[in-house]
Amino acid sequence: MGIGDVLPGGGVSKQDGGMFGAGSPTFLTTKIDWVINWGRRNSLWPMPFGTACCAIEMMASAASNYDLARFGMERMSFSPRQADVLICAGRVPYKLAPVLRRIWDQMPQPKWCVSMGACASSGGVFDVYSMVQGIDTIVPVDVYVPGCPPRPEGLIYGLMMIQEKIRQESLSRHFEHRAEDPNSVARPHANAEEVSGLTGPFGSSTHQDQLSTGLVVDTGDGLADDLGQGDD
Amino acid sequence: MTDHPPNELDVVSDGALPSDVDESGAVASSLREATHPSVLGLMGEFPSAVEAQTVSARDQAVVWIQASKSLEMLRWLKDDAGQLYDMLSDVTGVDYGDGRTIEVIYQLFSTKHKRPLRVRCKLPLDKLEIDSVVVLWKSADWLEREVYDLFGVTFVGHPDLRRILMPDDYEEGHPLRKDFPLRGRFSRAEQTRRALLQDVERFYQASDLQVGGRPQEVATPESTTLHGEDPS
Fold first, then answer.
1. Any idea what the CATH number is for the domain that residue A164 is in?
2. What is the pLDDT of residues B208-217, one digit of tens each?
3. Would you tell me which residues 156-175 of chain A have a C-beta closer than 8 angstroms to some C-beta of chain B?
4. Which of A160-169, B39-48, B125-134, B207-216 shows the lowest per-residue confidence on average (mean pLDDT)?
5. Alpha-carbon dihedral sign for residues A49, A54, A55, A57
6. Could you tell me the pTM of the whole model?
7. Could you give the ipTM of this predicted complex?
């Protein structure tokens, strides 16, 4: 049984060689959505944004043992211009936040984002002054991979979830799926309430002067006065 | 201050800190017990400016000197034929909290005589100033910037005293001071907003951004297009 037997048989040519040899169809029909999504999901090029130990696992995923190339992630694209998936692997300090946002803005549509590991997804144990509390405050995230760090299987599973997400997209709803506000370039992805809500009553076990509610504590060096809302 | 049940952290902040006891605790009677040749040399050369000495971690000689004479004494340590401390391994700071002095610590090594020396200067909180030693050791440049960034100590005579780890426009204070709240002074939303407003290329010369000897066009938020189309 050749592949011609399972493909739509309308164009079967008995005399000439078809697409797959004699007797196979000379054309096949499919949905353009299916073809485009098939192409997209099997040629995802990741943009590796590795900042910490998660990046080691990401590199292991790309190496021969786990071999991301099996899934069409043929090469890591170190230029955002040729990348489809941003893999943020590791903690992101506030000083690096504009860099991450710039890379995301430079990636062409369609694009997806994987937040790999606890630090990228939520700040992890780094509930401190210098660390972004989850990159979804900076860029929109499609898949969160939990773990500290996640094993390569975890990252591959996350990337396969991206593939599954692509399978369900439709060109007719492209602008809905891929909508992006031009004004959002270099802006936070989450609004102020969402960001402040991230570090609510839970958080670090050490003694806090501030519960991250926007409250500014006067520590006697005049900074609180400058902000005009000294309290507590 | 937030009410919270007492824990072991409070006990530490009430009394002497372990690191305090290690070096400062053994200070009082030990000046006459000094055996380290450089400490003895300092006591002979600057009899009134050596405040204390001890030996820490078995064989690490530590000497406290007056901050106002630090440049003169460190220059002597570097240039005197019997000392020749030609290598400055580290400049760090310590804030012991509770209004105690902040100390600036110089870790020296003499490759000629093959011996290390730790020099410490106490700075009162209302006058966090000390002479820069960049004129003596080039390695002090970034190290002093780090101490300035994280503790707020001003190094008089430093050629380029600005932040090095925190963003250049960081306005929340000096993070390693004991009175600095763990999560910073601003709300998370404000921190995120400020982070994304950073102009990351502002502090680079065009020559810093060269790749392969060719000047790169510097991308700005305005020139970064949403869908990755290169305007050229």
1. 3.40.50.12280
2. 666 665 555 5
3. none
4. B207-216
5. negative
6. 0.74
7. 0.72
